Amino acid sequence: MRMPVYLENNTRDGRALDEVSDAVDDAIHSNLPNRDVSVNIAKLKAQAQADVAAWDSAAQFDSEKDKAAFRDYEAACDREQHTKQTVEFNVRKRREFDEGRGKRARMGVWEAIEMLETLVDDSDPDTELSQIEHLLQTAEAIRRDGKPEWMQVVGLVHDLGKLLYFFGSEGQWDVVGDTFIVGCAFPDQIIYPGSFTENPDFTHPTYSSKYGMYEPNCGLDSVMLSWGHDETRAPFPRKVSP
């Protein structure tokens, strides 16, 4: 029988959580007295719950940074994005993107990362790093925070959709920036909500209403998000993940 695994020294360790699960199964199917099995399982579950809480805890790598100094939006490019991200534009871009499948450049992950070296995201005033530095910094921050390897990989490739900037974009405004729902009223919670007044959909009889072209409680899978690097890359992990 495998000995029970405890997580005092393994917080935020995905493999350790797998070992806990295996140990619970071993305890259930072992010949231990019922009382010993119950005690082992209770301890393992308690430790696993503590590990999940640690997973959701605040990041440690930048805990000493002044977050109030982040996001100087006056230097951002959100205003152009808010003016031009209409339903018509989003429908057209998705159609063009689908029609271009099979005609795109082929490259490895590191080639793609290197191609982003010259791009500085104008929508993110928190950093003036190139994208390659940003990706490495993100992956390293996740590693230092004790997250599992798969999450470090996600951090490394999370912005590869910004390659869209080099392949048919109309500017940074349709590649980078914060994402929001189009086709219904723009909420005040979006940064610079006043800049949406120049968007043609702002006065559209349907798109300016609360629910717009959607049904209430339809869910995120049923809405259209503003076009950009996140929308081009979001389907990819689903297709290649086991």
TrEMBL record:
Biological source species: Thanatephorus cucumeris (strain AG1-IB / isolate 7/3/14) (Lettuce bottom rot fungus)
Keyword Metal-binding: yes
Co-factor binding comment: Binds 2 iron ions per subunit.
EC number: 1.13.99.1
Name this polypeptide is given: Inositol oxygenase
Cellular location(s): Cytoplasm
Binding site for Fe cation: H134, H158, D159, H229
Reactions the enzyme catalyzes: myo-inositol + O2 = D-glucuronate + H2O + H(+)
PANTHER family: INOSITOL OXYGENASE, MYOINOSITOL OXYGENASE
CC terms in the record's Gene Ontology section: cytoplasm
UniProt KW keywords: Cytoplasm, Iron, Metal-binding, Oxidoreductase
Enzyme class: oxidoreductase
